[in-house]
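Quick look at the format.
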Amino acid sequence: MTGSKFNEFVQIVERLRKECPWDKEQTNDSIKAATIEEAYEVVEAIDNKDYDELKKELGDLLLHVVFHTVIAEESNHFKIDDVIESIQEKLIRRHPHVFGDKKVSDAEEVKTNWEEIKLSEGRDNLLDGMPPLLPALQLAHRIQEKVSKVGFDWEQKEDVWKKVVEEIEEMHRSELDGTHDELEGEIGDVIFALVNYARFLRINPENALRKTNNKFIRRFSYVEEKITESGRKLSESTLKEMDKFWEESKNIVD
């Protein structure tokens, strides 16, 4: 059933490409931003634990995979079978502990083997292929994960925290005595060090910050709602009044 459904779906996309004026005009380049947007909507559904929405968003993401492939096939670059074959080969090649006789003791060893296999596949260096368009926070986390797998890492969590404090102090000195560019660099160093500390705590900093952003939005929306109920605009309220409702929101809004 799954195979026939997938083939039917591919045929629908192919027909849309031929018969729909909008679909005809699209290129891999023109829909790439929408592909990224769909991926983030998948993440949002996961964060909300909304499985009905997740089902729909995964369908939207699958549409983009197939649509990109159909467009590429028109120029004889590759077909959907090539896409599937490529990922199948990669999964088998990078999981020798499942499909071969390699022995591993835990998930961390699996990740280390994964990076070693990638290097053996012709990468020029360990950080080759890092997606430059990843959000900077997520990219920092991935960079640190990768280099840690070859032993370039702190040994003790306490030393990582000391580095965070050191970077904060350097940032403060730069704020007092440095140029704007120097201060920007020092702030970047602080964030990079905090990402490293989060990694030692087994916290994904991108997930952590996204949750904090969403929490702030929910709580400030409560503040705005209370001000609006009084018949005024936010710009007409005082900081003291907004702080009062902000403190209230902590007991009401998760």
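Next, a different chain entirely:
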Amino acid sequence: MVYGLRYYFRLTGDNKRAINLPSLKNEAKLPVILNRNELRELFNAPALLKHRIVLTLIYSAGLRGQEAINLKLSDIDFQRKTIHIRQSKYKKDRVVPLSVFMARGLKKYIAAENPHIYLFNGKEPDGRYSVRGLSWVMREALKKSKIKKSVNLHSLRHYVE
């Protein structure tokens, strides 16, 4: 209602009244975090190696879904144990560490799937996996596991050790 009134006052040229309206604050909620057992169950739920690897990579490197599907083979540096994230949120590049365990899993995945340009091949016109596909993988993994918490793909970015 506040934003509707603000819009109406701007249309009628009464900007002073629009500015005096209060702004609404969003509730600050803590994210839902999965414990170690739940994470282990989630990562073991998918039948396909590709799905297990993409979920564990998102968790271990703290990636956004869009960042994961944009990863190219050339962005993974096994020598330095780093992942180069290109043009992510706010068009910024960043480099994140690649764990030894995750590097082993990625090497196994690359040997089995033999991806070409993108790390995770899919049905998009350019050959990438889709964000909707990633969300589906997460939903299916949650269905197969016994996790009852309200989590989504982005929840994997939040973890406590």
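The mean pLDDT is 89.

See the schema section for token definitions.
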